[in-house]
Amino acid sequence: MAHCVVCHNPDPTKTGGAGPEIAGASRELLEARVVDGTYPPGYTPKRTTKAMTPLPFLAPRIDDLAAFLAAAQHAER
User: Fold this and answer.
1) How far apart are CA 31 and CA 75, in angstroms?
2) Cα separations (Å) of 7 from 20, 42, 72?
3) Cβ proximity of 23 and 65 under 8 Å
4) pLDDT for position 58
5) Three-state SS string across 9-66, please?
6) Among 12, 15, 26, 33, which residue's Cβ finds the most Cβ atoms within 10 Å?
């Protein structure tokens, strides 16, 4: 959370000051974006900015992040 809420909303179902809502983001997207600073093949970004820098030290936590964001998406319903 400390790294994400700088740009993304603490509530991942809402848009942040600099980043889009991220609830329900796929593991594939998270790994590409957070670890490598890229996007999965065929993915269309929600924003065209290049502001997000890779955070490769979070690689071991991608599964936890994906589970958190999936739960946030389901809680929104």
Assistant:
1) 23
2) 8, 24, 17
3) no
4) 97
5) CCCCCCCCCCCCCCCCCCHHHHHHHHHHCCCCCCCCCCCCCCCCCCCHHHHHHHHHHH
6) 12
